[in-house]
Amino acid sequence: MRKYLFCLLIPVFFYLSSFSQFTTKNEAFLYAKIDSLKKAAPKLSGKAKIDCLNTIVDQYQIMDEDNQMQIDSAGPYAREAYNNAIRIGYKRGLGYACLKLGYINLVWSYEHKNDTRNSHNYPDSLKSIEKLIVEAMQISKEVNDLIMMGSAYAELAWLESLKGSKTQQLNYHKEAISNIERQRIQQKNEYKEMTYTNCSECSGQEFRLAELYSVLASLNSNKTEASESLRKAVALYKKAEAYPAVSNTYSALISIANPNGNTEAAKELINEAISYFKKVGDLSQVGDFYRRLAILIGVKNNSEVGMDYFKKSVFYFHEAGDQQGELSATTMMSATCFALGDFENSLEFSKKSIQLVEKMIGEHGNKTIKNDEWGKAYYWMARIYSAAGGDHETALGFMRLALVYYNDNPSPPEQWTAAIGEIYRLKGDYDSAMLYLSRFEESPGYASGTLYLGRLYISLNLYDKALPFINKNLNASSDNANFGNLGGGYTDLAKIWLGKKDYQKALNNARTAQSLLTRTKRNDRVIDNCQLLSEIFNKLGENDSAFFYLKKYTSLKDSFLTRQFYIRLNDYKKQAEEERKISQINLLNKDNQLKEQKLEQESFAKKGLIIGFLLLLLLGIFVFRSLSLRRRNENLRMQKDFELKQLENEKKQSELEMQALRAQMNPHFIFNCLSSINRFILKNESKIASNYLTRFSRLMRMVLMNSQKPLVSLDDELEMLEIYLEMERLRFRNSFDYAITFLNAIDSDNVYIPPLLLQPFCENAIWHGLMHKDGPGRLDIELSVLDSVLNCIITDNGVGRQKAEELNSKTAEKEKSMGLRITTERLALLNREKGLHTFYEIEDLIDENGNAAGTKVILKFSVKDSVEEVV
Question: What is the mean pLDDT of residues 410-426?
């Protein structure tokens, strides 16, 4: 119980429901993640280390169900994050570390609030927690982090729960929701508190907000406002795809709607839940809500309609493979048929329920497992034998069997005790019935117990004693709008007034009962009520009416209790007895088999001693040989480790060389771009320079991001190249056009090349070819993939290399040679390190008259399907 109260009061951002979409809590995964973070933390420094420490605390909070782990294991990491954040002045990290320390202290305070040994520390503990929360709130204002502020308010709400102010709790929860809703998204590179939302269109705070709304509803005494909060929680849980939480919140909404007698509102909510879970494909939940709909409508109002819903419930439970749910719905179908007086179908459904129980017992391999639904399967079979068949002894046998499966209790469950007492009453053994039902006289908590005790007093002609118990049952049925039970209660009340010889009151109550029972199709009670009406009319001297209801009683009873039903009931009883005999024979056979196995084991033990001695001898020889081989293998392993270390050193050297070349490429590229901007500025073309600079800044972001990676996708490389080409076109006043063409189908997201590979060739074509051309220029980039080789042809119609060499200055030649030299060295290293085959060649183009018509660069690069395989 303590655990569930804790989950209700705990700040939502530290609460993890078990759901699937997220899922289901995987402890192995969480332990692995914590170990990984623990190994990473010592290697980090500054803000990154503090964020890592806070994340470790998050993972412990997700995994912990009993709270103690968060104090023992997570506490040191929270304190280390707090101290480090103070030392380097990292405010965001300090704010969240304050919240985590406050949370851990709240856990301790909650665990020890009733511990007299720590009572002197308790007020100081609450003050220190409040101080930490206030510190976090101040930091949240400074760094403008509303999520931190919302989390702080959520902790204050929990702190108030320890102090006892429900109104203040409510206000703090509202403040928590308000702050988190106003800042739904954090920066990408910032630390984020644990979130539970994985959907692409989610902000990450949906689950947290939903839980806050749920707690807000539990604190709000205004049912309208509580319903509105739960509605918001449902919408957020749906967005977060937290299916179990959606189900639980719908259940809370239904519980608010139904006690007010608003059956239609509850029905609408259940249908809404069914529609949602059909959409997401959770068939077990669909079955569960159909079962609730059947109970809401069938048990209380219309049993025949309820049967239809129960059948749908069984279907969906079966499709989902949910045997426990299928058993529950099948058992309720048996109970509903019993109420309708359809004892044949009630018997069939009870048989199916017991078959499901036996199947589950076989799968669990343990007949002693306690499960209320298993007990109910035998409970309803007992009711059928007692009420319909009149075989009370067999009924008592099934009731004793039902008790085996009910959950552990200091005393037998109330439902079982009440049913046993009712069977003894029907049997006419009133002393035994009183032995079981008398417990409900002093503690009348269970409705059926008080009802059966009232009926026992009617059977004993103690009408004044029966009246308060029957009235209590009537009031409860009226409050719950359970018209079926209400009709039965009026029948019992009519019996009391008949016994007290107040025939008019008896008649009024019996007629009310007839109307309600007919309306709700409670045919078993209709039969009883018809017999009662016949007796009342007989006492009133209205023989025609008495005869009418007597005929109706006889007709209904004959139609329900057919000869075929009795035959089937006896057949099932014989079948059950035969199965018990077979079971006893199987047990005897099993005992004999165990004895034979014991003799075989003794013989085997003697042989085992001889074999064991021989094995020890062989083991000695094996150990001696193994030691010799181990020394030899150790020498070989040491030699192999030495060779592996040499290979690793060579690999690291190659990686460092590649990084150095990428570092050279960036200044070279940036120098060329800044030169272009400088030209515009010198020419006083400020608007063009501003436009150019805007494109340049976007290009620089991509260059800086991509240049840190050994390989980037072809899609990213082409996007960066297009920005560069647009800049050059702007600088040369659109004096040339360009086109990037795929000659065959290329999945550019899964083709990876070194960053800034194509740009130097395009730059040379523009600066040294197209820039000196008279008339419009043209640059074509054609790409194709054949046999895992990326072919790239870069063609321009510029003045050609020979003419460019004549026109370019020495500085320009140096820039050109630098770019090509770096690119050549990068490709050479890639070939050596990755085992790839990459090269390029440059051709001079000549027109029909033998004049230079431009240049063509052919670049080939072997690729794989994904960057992970290449890298």
Answer: 79
> Is 756:706 a contact under the CB 8 Å cutoff?
yes
β-strands 789-796, 752-753: how paired?
unpaired
Q: Which two tokens stand for residue 119?
A: 């009572």
Which of helix, strand or coil describes residue 688?
Answer: helix
**3-state DSSP assignment of residue 695:** helix
**Residue that is written with structure tokens 């459904």 in the block:** 349
In tens, the pLDDT along 242-278 reads 777 888 887 787 777 766 556 777 788 888 888 888 8
Cβ neighbour number for residue 167 with a 10 Å cutoff: 9
Distances, alpha carbon 93 to alpha carbons 80, 81, 131, 136, in Å: 11, 7, 17, 10
Residue 796, pLDDT > 90, answer: yes
pTM score above 0.70: no
Q: What is the CB neighbour count within 10 angstroms for residue 359? A: 12
Residue 615: partners with Cβ closer than 8 Å, 6 or more residues away: none
Token couple for 699: 């290009």
Q: List all residues 6 or more positions away from 583 whose beta carbon is below 8 Å from its beta carbon.
A: none
Q: Name which of 795, 868, 791, 784 is nearest 837 in CA terms.
A: 791
**Which helix (H) or strand (E) segment is 477 a member of?**
helix 463-479
Q: Note every long-range contact of 577-585, with CB atoms under 8 Å and residues 24 or more positions apart, other chains counting.
A: none
pLDDT at 17: 35
Token match 């902790």: residue? 155
The radius of gyration of the chain from alpha carbons, rounded to an integer in Å, stands at 41
Adjacent-strand bridge partners of 236: none
Please spell the DSSP secondary structure of 658-674, one letter per residue: HHHHHHHHHHHHHHHHH
Rounded (10°) angle between helices 503-519 and 483-499: 160
Written as six digits, the tokens of 867 are 């960057």
The DSSP secondary-structure symbol of 21 reads T
For residue 630, the SS3 value is helix
* Cα 351–Cα 352–Cα 357 angle in degrees, nearest 5: 95
Please report the DSSP string for 89-104 in residue order: T-HHHHHHHHHHHHHH
Cβ–Cβ < 8 Å for 573, 536: no
Residue matched to tokens 């800042």:
183
DSSP string, 228-271: HHHHHHHHHHHHHT-HHHHHHHHHHHHHHHGGGT-HHHHHHHHH
The per-residue pLDDT for range 57-110, each reduced to its tens digit, is 888 877 665 555 556 788 888 899 999 999 999 998 899 889 888 888 888 777
Q: Cα separation of 450 and 404, whole Å?
A: 24
- Residue-wise pLDDT tens digits, 587-624: 566 666 666 777 777 777 777 778 887 888 888 888 88
If you write DSSP's letter for every residue of 772-805 in order, what string do you get? T-SS-EEEEEEEEEETTEEEEEEEE-SSHHHHHH
Strand partners, 122: none
Per-residue exposure over 604-618, b if at least 16 CB sit within 10 Å of its own CB, e if not: eeeeeeeeeeeeeee
139: its two tokens? 């930091």
Q: Two tokens at 736?
A: 């040339």
Calpha distance 164→49 (Å, rounded): 38
